[in-house]
Each structure stands twice: as structure tokens, then as C-alpha cells.
Amino acid sequence: xxTVVRGKHLLGALICCxxxxxPIGVACGMGGVSPPAAAAGAANTNWGLSFxxxxxxxxxxxxxxxxxxxxxxxxxDPAEKVxxxxxxxxxxxxxxxxxLDTLKKHDVKAAFFVVGNYIQxxxxxxxxxxxxxxxxxxxxxxxxxxxxxxxxxxxRQELEELEALYRETTGQEMxxxxxxxxxKYSESNLKQAQELGYTTFFWSLAYVDWYVDDQPTHEEAxxxxxxxxxxxxxxxxHSTSRTNAEILDELLTRWKAxxxxxxxxxxxxx
Length: 270
Prior knowledge:
Order of helices and strands: EEHEEEHEEHEHHEHEEHEHEHEH
Radius of gyration: 17 Å
Structural class: alpha/beta
Strand content: 15-25%
Largest sheet: 5 strands, parallel
Number of strands: 14
């Protein structure tokens, strides 16, 4: 789903908003103890989080055990000070080159969850992501509410169409990493993604960064991202955000100063 904001196309703005409201996460099964969850999972729901204590894995609205049975995750080991940095990319807003420059400076590998529009309109940036060792994940071709798609073939088509675009653009096969658009999912979605060989990734830290014409100040961004960082965090940022591009260098520096290192989603679920 796309929203037009003063002439600019903003992809799935709700995805981060939902992340901050309700809990749905998973402490990835790397030997850590999962936080309690409000519920095992619902037929159709929104991914969200409840931050109960700064520096600790937030509580999700589905348990780690529930998600893990479908090869789905939202966070890593709460005993390891590792951050997994991810970006959602619906369209190119001019900030991804600076983000990639900063990631290269800090030798941090991230995951970019892209949609069909992004691959079609910014193929050179997708190629650069791959060349510089980042993961390019599947955010579906058209960014629909996948929880409303019960037909297996329609679900498969959304993922495989993006795979084909990626293959045509990079000459490589796309990694089977999936993030549900808008953070909306159902148990049947998780099962369908698993049957297609996908690992589903939610997140354990995000903030309101997607309104192009109402960007948070640097202070507001740091006020959310610094106290709420936690061991095993899967951080979701939007690459359309000017603020994210401007603060990323200092943000990574400050996280490193707190003793954090950066891992990849492949390492998270190894």
C-alpha cells in the first residue's frame, strides 16, 4: 500500500507505527530466554511492541515459541550485545547513498527489505547493497496487507514476483528473508512463508521516522533509539528518512560506545 504525502510516495507508513503500539515479537532462538508475550498469536493481527524496561527486549504480542515454529523472529539473544540493523525501502527518497556510505564507514552490514517499486526505480542502489555485502530481503512486490491474502497462490505470487525482479536486476537469487508489509500478519501467512522456504523477520525497535514532511528532530530520534536499544535488537529504520541519514553516523558511534556490535540476520538465526 502506498500513501501520497505532498506529492511523494510513502510506502507502508504504518509498519513502524504498529511496531511501537502492540507487542509481537520473538526473541530469536539463540539460547536466550524469551520475554513473556501477551498472546501466542491471533488469526490476523498487527505487529507491535510493549517497552516495559529500557535496555530490555520489549514484549511482543506473540511469543517467541509461537513464532519460532514458523521460522519467524523479532529479536536475538538478550544476553548478547548485538544489534541487527534493518531498513524498509518502498521508494528512493535520495538518502540511501548516504546511509550506505555510513554503513561502509562503520563496517556494518544491514538488511534492506525492498518492494518491487524500489527495485524497478533504483536498480543501481540495489546492486550497490549487494556488492557491499548487505542483505536484500523480500517486502513483497506490491506491499499489500498480506494478512488478508488467504489464497496460497496469491501469497506466493507477491513474493515470487519480487524474486524475479531481483534476479533480473542483480543476476543473483534473493535470500529467503521476508518482512510482512505494514507489520500485518496471520498464522496462515507465517505458515505459507515457511512453506516457501522463507524466514520471517519482525523487529524489536523502531520509531516514527516515515513522515517525509514531518521528520523527527535529531534529539527526538536519539530519545527513542538510544534508551530503548537492547541486546539482540532487530532495529527497523526507513531509508526514506532524512533524519535517519543525518544521525546514522553518530547513532552507530554511540551504540558502539555502549559496547554493542552488529550482526546479520543470517547470524541471528544460525
